[in-house]
Each structure stands twice: as C-alpha cells, then as structure tokens.
Amino acid sequence: MVTFYSSFQRLPRLQVERTNKCHGPMERFKWTPEPRPKFLVNGQVTGTADLPHAIQNRAFLYGDGFFESVRICYGKPQLVPFHWNRIQSSLRAHKMDASGWNLFHFELALHELCDANGIDEGGRIRLTFFRDGGGRYTPNTDKLCWIGEAEKLPHCEFVLNEQGLAVDVFPEMKKLQDSLANFKNISASIYVQAGLWAKEQALEDALLKNTGNHIIESTTSNLFLVSNGVLYTPGLDGGPVGGVMRAAIINLALKEGYKVYECNISPQEMLRADELFLTNAIRGIQWVARYRSKRYFNATSKELIGLLNAGITR
Fold first, then answer.
1. Is residue 82 part of a domain?
2. pLDDT (tens digit, 9 = 90+) per residue, 280-298?
3. Choosing a second label site near 157 at 20 to 30 A (CA), which of 78, 173, 204, 278?
4. Residues spanned by the domain of 287
5. What is the spatial distance between Cα 226 and Cα 275, in angstroms, rounded to a whole number?
6. Residue 143 pLDDT level (bands cut at 50, 70, 90)
C-alpha cells in the first residue's frame, strides 16, 4: 500500500537495531514513524486530517494576495478584458509572477468553470490569487497560484434595486492611500468592520473615508454622484478600489454624452447631489435613496443600467 504525505508532515524515521544473531553482527532495519504534528482548531487539539482546507497557503497565513469577482450573464463571463487588465495590474503591484499566462487562456478557463458548474444563465465567479510557496513575511518565491469558484444567481441581467439603499459614513477607520489601495486585496479588515457597523446602524451599506477625510467608496462598491446631469466619482489617487464596473460605467456614460469628472467628495457634496448610486461587477448599479437627511432620485441609475444590459455579452 502506498502512503502519501502532505508537505508539512515529516517522513518516517529509519531506526537501526544491531544484533549478533544469525552469522555475525548484522543490522536490522525497521520503520518507526515520527509523531505527526498536532494543531489547535477552535481550542481543540487535532491532527492534520481535521484541519481546515488551505490552511498552509500564504493567502490564509499572511493575506498575501487579491481576488476578483466576475459576473456571468446568459452563461457568459462579462467584462473579461476589464478584469484581465486589473488582474495584470494587481499582479505587478503585489510582485507576483504570472509569466506564460494570457487573456485567451484566462477567458477559456472562465468558460470551462461555468460549464463545469452547469451555469448557463446568471452566476458569479470568484477568483482568488495568492503567492505560492512558503517563507514568513518574506516569501521564498513569487510564483502565482489561483483558485476559481462559481455559483448560480437568479437573474441573467443586472437588476436595479426597487428600494433605494440607506447609507452613511463609517466613522471608526479610514482607508490608507497606498500602492495597493486600488486593488481587491484579501486583507480587507476595514470593509468587514464597516459592514458590521452598517448592520448595527440598520443601514444597507457604509461609505468609507480616506486619510484625507474624503469619501471614496462603500464596503462593496464604487461611488457616483449626479448633480445637474453631470457624474462625479472619487479619483483613484484617493484610494478607492479601481472597480471594473466603475470603468465600464464611465465609458458608457461618456459614450452617451454625459460629462464625468473624478474629484474629491465631501459630505457637503453628498448633500447637494441629485442622485447617488453604487457600482460593482456583480450587481451593476444600485441606487441610494437616503444619506442622513438627504433623499435622492434614480433616473440616471435607471438609464445607465438599461444601457449596461443592452451591451451584455451573450
């Protein structure tokens, strides 16, 4: 019987016994397995068989990676070139090596994942990218490892929310404007804490500020304001995620003749705006009905989501 050992288990130790039996001094060998390592899981000592999956990768240990969310409509991954470009930028920023990989193979892999999961209508894909190998804080390789998972969604197209969202500014933490701020990093504590705060306040979402006290995004989405028919969105130098849907909506709005400006947004601009909406790759556009005492309309959100659905890859 062949026994396979995981990378973090030692091979059995060869123990030598000396004996004078038979025709003189001889060495008799026998295998004595070394004790297997034990771990704590939720306070209980356990063996390797009961460890959570993927516990030994750098994504789990150090948050060394990023992720990507791709919408599926009519069985087809959407906005793939936008996702590919952001992935390439993320890899460079995280200093990960993905040589020999191209857009053709990436898109083919997404389609194979959809087919394997029987997704021929609506769905979503999550791709997680992390550095392979070991090391501590300093890795011993820059080789890339990535995992994809897919699930079905009930709608083939982007659906605008019937009831507008209620939002407010998360007061407890501010997002840094560093070289990784524009990417969907695995280490996402500020978003988790903001989401918990929104839940405690009975809000649908929370808005985040950067260290310059400008409002830059929500926990899951990019932010757009509409004032007198003009669109405003926080610039990437302020630290929001460089959203795929953000880029798609900017291009779509410009094509339709809208003026679009990147700028710093303060609570005062929020209160003066006519409309407020959020964008992400999975939901498309979600309109906001209330920010503090301010109430908003949704005419622009309705128009843009209609145009977005008209351009779906089928």
1. yes
2. 999 999 999 999 999 999 9
3. 204
4. 165-310
5. 5
6. confident
